[in-house]
Write a structure and sequence with these properties.
The complex is a heterodimer of chains A (505) and B (417). Chain A is mainly alpha-helical. Chain A is 54% helix and 3% strand. Chain A has 25 helices and six strands. The longest helix of chain B is centred in the middle third of the chain and has 20 residues. The chains are: A mainly alpha (505), B alpha/beta (417).
């Protein structure tokens, strides 16, 4: 890897960086302000793709100040994105409003069609999607579009990266029943407000969200009738949430819990349910479904006779476990640093998590200030997910997206349908999940479609485009030569966006 | 690497364009001996097909009591009556092509088959079946992907696993390379041969090993698909696939199988089975779906001809439907179901598995066909006896594979050549 420009060392820069580092509590001071390659690299990890204008700005204000800004997104002016989101009808609605106004008409129309269908002789399935079906899909369509637009245009790039990270960590699939229309509120109210806040509050918000309660079946989990085997009863203890809460949300699969813990945790959450989930109702605690017996979770005794506080207590216990700190630290380090993050870094981030009781802003500061993040060996070491690829292409083209739906479809065709990841694990964040022949051909096709202006709703000025906007001087000689030999600007752009280098960040 | 560069620079770029590949590529594939690989074609009926209409237990009085409006009449009646199998079971009257396979001793059926998990959520049950880990939601990969990894071959053929589906099905997701496509004609690199050649050059010389290798796989796959000749495909004489999406998906699977491109696993899916309302009986909604299903599967098997010796076709659905019809002339979500198995030496003309009966006390939770064969035992028998996997344990985490629990689809001494 060539280091192009010598770093300009200035006392002021050292002072700023040192201040940031001491805030982060690491105590080390770096030798100098990072060079342009390092800034490009830093931005490729903490944004949805660096634009030349972003690189220039960070060079001007210094990395430390940029980090400070991004860690306080509420202080960043982001009015431009508000304009792009203004047309969406459902973004600000409650789940109940969405259920009533968007989901219900389709349900009623379907019932009506089925009522009218002839019992015999009907050879084809009823007529295709009508207006009601389109309307029922609108909340999810708008949610997906806003995700693309925010990622492409928000100045609060770190926040958008973290909303994606934490949604994926607490994944809910839109295809499971009413989750189709519960995710608008889930992302907006349970995830987004907490991504730089307290982990415990984030955990609590997801635990009480109708989206999660429905997705992992806890809404129908109830105390097993004492001793007796339930015959034909639809209700009983359901362990799904209890298991995933520990395996995926907190401790990690090797976090040292047993099947006994799973059952005990599930018992603690009995009665955490949803009032009329299909009508968009809120969280409700149902004391009649709650198992009031004593529980022992990871060695902590929860006394008999409790109610809703049993679940809260379990969340307290899990959020404070060292295994949780390590699991979250490792996952964040994998997202921002490398598929196999250095153990020393994970240790430091985990220690920060523990010492701050899960203050996610402090945890993020530890990662963003880590020398490991800037190590040249890590440049372009991560493969972009399809979502990251599509949005970074839009940013590299400095394109104007007036309709995001075609890009939502593009991400889906690349194998990552937004908000529709089936397993609760969420989408994978490592290269092996996204590198396969079919998807790669689709990426090249999308690169060409974008370059030649064939993706509806996406406009850009090819004459202003330079290879640096996509690859920042990091292309291999073969790629640079191939691009240089291409006869048209369209082909040059396609070859840049479809190149091996652009598949990485 | 050097020889590859020379190859690329000597004007071979035109190969990339689909449709222009010289036929020597097809011959190369044949010469490499890829043609006789054992193959599994998995078909998922999404939405829970009514197994009691698919394979009708007409010998059960309880069946007719529970379904006064939608039961399939016993064989021998007029038009809409069941096609007799063994005097107790019959096929749905619209499954004529499958009945022919039964009569020639090729169609095997496993009834009362399903999951030990009692979920009646389509979503969860499909997930459990495709990961082959009932009750465990966080399994990262699908069982067919694990099959590929266990049967690792170097170098893997780029079309070793193909799903004719818009997205990669859960069953094939995982680290082993697999290809999902809407159709052969839709899969290709647009922009012309020259641009394709430039993309190929970028990847051929990439220092990035992972992407470089995948890029080379991708271009190999494109060439192989081109050699399979998407526009030229003609099914075997007399074979006609339905023009439905499912029929066309199976036609393309046959095309790939016959092109000898090393395809070991193929996957297709067909929906429309969630018949809560106005299911119909000998005619109606379900009959129309079964008609498409039966004609397409029948065409596939006829089209593959003697390639069926090394091919197993397996059909599955996430769960069955309740024994009793509901108040809307339909059926609600149930439990046990029927799986169909054809080819690869599977002993047809028999219904496998213990039949639990349909009387109320014989049902699961008082309402559904009980499960007497774990679907993983069917999968495992095919994996061991057909695909020749000596140690299937990694494919079925948390499940002990035991030969004595196999339904017995294959002769006990049957070992793949």
């Amino acid at each position: 890897m060539k280091i192009r420009a010598a770093a300009r060392v200035s006392l002021a820069a050292i002072a700023i960086v040192s201040a940031a580092r001491s805030l982060a509590g690491s105590g080390e001071s770096p030798a100098r302000e990072p060079d342009r390659q390092a800034i490009v690299h830093f931005l490729s990890r903490t944004t949805y793709g660096p634009r030349p204008v972003d690189v220039a700005r960070v060079q001007r204000i210094g990395l430390a100040r940029y980090i400070d800004e991004q860690l306080h997104p509420e202080r960043i002016d982001d009015t431009a994105i508000e304009g792009r989101l203004a047309g969406f009808e459902t973004s600000a609605l409650t789940s109940r409003e969405i259920a009533e106004q968007y989901a219900r008409p389709a349900l009623e129309a379907r019932r009506e069609r089925q009522r009218l269908a002839k019992p015999r002789g009907e050879e084809t399935t009823p007529a295709g999607p009508g207006d009601e079906v389109r309307r029922a899909n609108q909340p999810l369509v708008e949610l997906s579009e806003q995700k693309i637009l925010r990622a492409a245009y928000s100045e609060r790039q770190l926040q958008e990266v973290l909303v994606d990270f934490w949604f994926n960590h607490f994944n809910v699939d839109a295809r499971k029943g009413p989750d189709r229309f519960l995710l608008t509120a889930y992302e907006r109210d349970a995830i987004r407000p907490h991504v730089l806040g307290s982990f415990r509050e984030l955990l609590g918000a997801t635990a009480k969200s109708p989206a999660m309660l429905f997705y992992l079946d806890n809404w129908m989990s109830a105390a097993d009738p004492a001793g007796a085997r339930q015959s034909g009863a639809r209700r009983g203890l359901n362990e799904n949430y209890g298991r995933e809460l520990m395996e995926l949300h907190t401790l990690g699969v090797d976090g040292g819990y047993t099947q006994r813990d799973v059952t005990e945790v599930a018992r603690a959450f009995t009665g955490w349910t949803v009032q009329q989930p299909r009508r968009g109702g809120p969280f409700r605690f149902d004391p009649r479904a709650h198992d009031r017996g004593a529980k022992i979770v990871l060695g902590h005794r929860i006394a008999a006779g409790g109610g809703i506080e049993d679940g809260e207590r379990v969340l307290d216990i899990l959020a404070a476990q060292p295994a949780t700190a390590r699991f979250i630290a490792g996952k964040l380090a994998r997202r921002f640093v490398s598929d196999a993050p250095p153990p020393a870094l994970v240790d430091r981030v985990a220690a920060r998590f523990t010492s701050t009781h899960g203050d996610l802003r402090a945890v993020m500061r530890e990662i963003l200030a880590a020398p490991e993040l800037l190590a040249p060996s890590g440049y372009r070491a991560k493969v972009k997910t399809p979502f990251e690829f599509v949005v970074s292409a839009v940013r590299a083209l400095d394109a104007d997206v007036t309709r995001a739906a075609p890009l939502v479809r593009a991400v889906q065709q690349l194998g990552m349908p937004l908000y529709q990841c089936q397993p609760p694990t969420g989408y994978h964040d490592t290269a092996d999940a996204w590198v396969n022949a079919g998807a790669l051909v689709e990426r090249m096709n999308l690169a060409l479609a974008l370059a030649s202006g064939r993706v509806p709703g996406v406009a850009f000025a090819p004459e202003r485009w330079t290879i640096d906007a996509a690859l920042f001087g990091e292309a291999s000689p073969a790629t640079r030569e191939t691009i240089a030999r291409a006869p048209t600007k369209v082909q040059q752009i396609a070859l840049a966006l479809g190149s091996p280098e652009f598949q990485r960040r | 690497m050097q020889s590859r560069r020379v190859f690329l620079r000597n004007g071979a770029f035109a190969l990339v364009s689909v449709g222009f590949a010289p036929s020597f590529l097809a011959r190369t594939a044949l010469a490499a001996g890829a043609s006789r690989a054992r193959r599994l074609i998995a078909i998922f009926q999404r939405g829970a097909v009514d197994g009691l209409s698919l394979v009708v237990p007409f010998g059960e009085a309880a069946y007719y009591q529970a379904r006064p409006g939608i039961a399939i009449a016993p064989p021998g009646g007029t038009g809409g009556s069941a096609l007799d199998l063994d005097g107790f079971f019959g096929l749905h009257p619209r499954l004529g092509p499958l009945h022919a396979l039964w009569r020639s001793g090729r169609l095997a059926i496993v009834h009362a088959c399903g999951s030990p998990d009692s979920t009646r959520s389509h979503f969860d049950a499909q997930d459990y079946m495709e990961t082959a880990t009932p009750g465990v939601k966080s399994t990262g990969d699908g069982w067919l992907n694990r099959c590929l990894r266990v049967r690792r071959e170097e170098p893997p053929a780029p079309l070793r696993a193909v799903a004719l589906t818009p997205e990669m099905p859960r069953a094939l997701q995982g680290p082993a390379p697999a290809l999902a496509m809407r159709g052969i004609a839709q899969f290709g690199l647009r922009g012309g041969a020259k641009l394709g050649g430039s993309f190929e050059a970028e990847y051929a010389e990439a220092a990035d090993r992972t992407l470089g290798r995948t890029g080379r796989d991708a271009f190999d796959a494109l060439r192989q698909l081109a050699s399979a000749g998407p526009a030229r495909y003609r099914p075997a004489p007399g074979v006609e696939y339905p023009r439905s999406p499912f029929g066309q998906a199976l036609a393309q699977i046959a095309q790939l199988a016959k092109a000898d491109v090393g395809m070991e696993i193929a996957f297709a899916e067909i929906g429309g089975w969630d018949t809560h309302v106005n299911q119909g009986s000998g005619e109606g909604q379900l009959a129309a779906r079964l008609d498409d299903f039966g004609r397409a599967v029948g065409a596939l098997i006829a089209d593959l001809g003697d390639r069926m010796d090394e091919t197993v076709v397996l059909t599955m659905s996430e769960f069955g439907r309740a024994v009793s019809e509901n108040g809307n002339g339909g059926t609600d979500h149930g439990h046990g179901n029927a799986m169909l198995v054809v080819g690869g030496g599977a002993r047809g003309g028999r219904v496998y598995g213990r039949w639990p009966g349909l009387a109320r006390e014989q049902r699961f939770e008082g309402r559904d066909l009980a499960v007497t064969t774990d679907f993983r035992d069917v999968f495992a028998e095919i994996v061991v006896s057909h695909l020749g996997v000596a140690d299937p344990a990694p494919i079925f985490p948390g499940f002990e594979v035991r030969r004595e629990r196999f339904p017995g689809l294959f002769a006990p001494d049957s070992q793949p050549a």
